[in-house]
Amino acid sequence: MHTDLVAALDIGGTKIAGALVAGDGGLLARAQRPTPARAEGGAVMAAVGEVLDELAASPEWPRAGAVGIGSAGPVDAKAGTVSPVNIPGWRDYPLVSGVREHVGGLPVTLVGDGVAMTAAEHWQGAARGRAGALCMVVSTGVGGGLVLGGRLHPGPTGNAGHIGHISVDLDGDPCPCGGRGCVERIASGPNIARRALEAGWRPAADGDTSAAAVAAAARDGDPVAAASFGRAARALAAGIAATATLVEIEIAVIGGGVANAGDVLFAPLREALDEFATLSFVRGLEVAPAQMGTDAGLVGAAAACWEQLGAGA
């Protein structure tokens, strides 16, 4: 099936964004609602419905032949359900059937938000034209997705490439996922800040204790702040090297709020990668910042949808 327009949804714990995405990646219409994250499941679905209704009011809507959804996870594309950690009212929630019903039976594709970001970066961003890539979102959590053999590789449930829950420290802190020493437990924004505070870093007069504030302090030469980013970089490098060793990727693309730290993150990351990626076939691995910005989820949900429909984006 070929369609030149896809309705895309990007669902997270803070907002539900929607857009009509054209075949060149342009966004023809947008809609957004805050996520009623503490409400029961039906109320969250009602907010999704409002976003879809607003898109349906666009004169371009009749051209939309399918819906692509990138959602906070875990997702189960096989079952069409989602259980986002930060939306407690949705546990094994039948999102795909709910959306399909709302849009009159159009085909619906569901992937995790890390896979959606990967689809966007491979279509139009830093991984464009690459046969093998790992793309990561490093923010409140750490997610990711894979491109293998030149195609998006979401896996049967839409979660493949979830690098945040690879263990890189066997004796590390317990992770809420049930594992220990996970990449996310060391490298996510809140964990970078937590570690810096525990090690004695103190915020500036404004009291800002975010990872961005830690990055600013590191840039100004604070050794404790720099050490927390250094440890996060090592965790990311270990996860990237393990992935590259398993599936042979050419590039690792890193986006999300923590990537905005720039060289505070990327310099120690490249250094650590040299240390971990020692085998000949992983040694030349490139690391690059993501290019798609805040629209990556929407553009990627559409790209994943086209790939699934076999139309090619």
Automatic annotation (TrEMBL):
PANTHER family per UniProt: N-ACETYLMANNOSAMINE KINASE (PTHR18964:SF169), ROK (REPRESSOR, ORF, KINASE) FAMILY (PTHR18964)
Official protein name in the record: ROK family protein
InterPro entries in the cross-refs: ATPase_NBD (IPR043129), ROK (IPR000600), ROK_cs (IPR049874)
Top-level taxon: Bacteria
Similarity remark: Belongs to the ROK (NagC/XylR) family.
Gene3D superfamilies: 3.30.420.40
